[in-house]
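Practice problem: predict the structure.
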Amino acid sequence: MLVRISGEVKNFSWGSKHLIQDQLGLGPTNQEVAEVWFGTHAGGQSKLLTSGQNLSEAIGSKLSFLVKFLAADSPLSIQVHPNALQAKAGFAKENAAGIDLADPKRNYKDDSHKPEILIALSAFKALCGFRPRAEILEIFLAFSESEARFGELAALLATEASLEEIFSELLEDSALAGRFARSVAGLDIDSISEQARALVVDLLGKYPGETGALVSLLLNFIQLAPGEAIYLPAGNLHAYLSGLGLEVMAASDNVIRGGLTSKHIDKAELRNITDFSELAEPKVSLKKLAEGLVEYPVSASEFRVYRAQITGTNMLADIDLPAAAVIVCVSGEIAVGTSLEEREVLKKGEVVFVSEAKKFSLSGSGDAFVVLGS
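Answer:
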């Protein structure tokens, strides 16, 4: 089976009026488009373009993964995803409490974990995992010159207080959030601390008094070039700030939020499932498999992600297809063929689902991402 599929559009206020529209050739719109989902998740089902049939009905099963275009003009919430055991327990607990699945105060929409990878399609900014302690201490000490509270926090950190303790202190310090911009405004500080200060001031401008903005001081600030990626396993505290990306994740919608949002925030559950380990290198290291073909190695069992860069002199022929796959063209024009003699030519923003064939090939001139299921 080789079929073109549509995506489910999600309109959220943090989305963009042009990023996804340009990618999918929709033209400018007056409404923000934040995400487009491709897969069989109940929250956003793909359909066969030829018939309008739901993809899950056409294949008689659910995919283990979900693919999304994501466009952020404004920051998304500070958030974390549960591991498999936490998801099962949380889902069962909320079911037993009689909390409706549509209740906005519900944390767990299903019983699955949600490891995910974000691959930048444009310049992309994000917060991902906890900075090294030494870097956090450097920032606190710089700010302490005009804000005594940061001196206290620096002293705690220097006496081996856990990152969880520091996180909790910042998450509850609404007074500091209220005066942050004024108290550190005139400091002459180094580049790392200046970058951290500018980010917090920007976030507080969008979310006045929000302690989630202070938590950003603890997280790695990442700037991705197109093609670079970050991986977000269970427990990784993160927030997407701006840009266009391709997300691949286990087919779940479980998100626990801690700030920078008008949606439900559960600080206690956030603390419960966050991994407070330092993350020295947030970016994914690519693995070259062949000329024009690289893998984004991640630990998730539900999906594998590859990037194929095809030119007139470089085609990828007879690639093994051990499981169902979704292929997304992000630039140029790429022909997808299978060992069952099926063929579809994709342009920028077009997507196909492929299964049952033993092998597939890519030719033409363009850039595509191939997502294989488990």
